[in-house]
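Worked example 3. Consider a protein that binds zinc ion.
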Amino acid sequence: VAPVTGDQVCWICGDPGTTGEHGVKRSDLKALYPDVSQQTPLYLHLPDGGITRIQGLNSDALKLASKLCPTCNNTRTQPHDRAWETLAQRLRQPEVRAGHVIRLSEAFSALGPNAPVDLQLYFAKLTGCLAQEGGIPIDIAELADAIKTGRPCPDLYLRFGKSPPDKEVVGIVGAEVIRDDATRKVVGMSWYYNLGLVLVHVIHTPSPHLFASLCVDAWHPGGAADEVFVHDYGPLL
Ligand SMILES: [Zn+2]
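Given these inputs, the predicted complex is written out as structure tokens:
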């Protein structure tokens, strides 16, 4: 993966990109690993496949290489962050287990009516950043449009899951292209937002029928959008 260097433009709006987006949200790590320190480090997976040891949650290693403008990174995407934070809080609860269904109308009762779309757009922002910095050929303009208009991204599917308590390895795992088995053509991208106990499998593809086992029961804001199924993921790493 080529590092992102030089002057960057914000891939969402085209303004100069000056601020680094967090890969894994600090608040997510803080809630699950409040005591990260030199004595109790956390092992962070990086989008390029490397692993780094972090000894505190202010580490720059938590930020992605892809840069956004301050407006897109903060103001524009604030409701998206809030929607994810709200669902993340619910997913973290020990009584929420694989096989359960979370109703967004309940989980998001304190948020506005666009919260389910905002939830998807949180992962649209990260997907665009990862695709940009990894040179992964997906339609980033589609993600940018969805973020700018506050409308659902048609091609972005999310699978929320729990995995067994394991070693404290977190981060962005396996950001890579997915290919059509028959033609070997690139038809999308897949990655994991891995918090250890809680994870989100993100799939971007205009051809969900090619990945029916992943996309059919994935969550998308549309259809049965009120129900978030909690999938059972084994230890990822
Ligand atoms: Zn921007």
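Take a moment to read the result before moving on. The first helix runs from residue 26 to 32. The beta strands are 19-22, 42-45, 51-54, 63-68, 101-103, 156-162, 169-179, 186-194, 198-204, 227-232.
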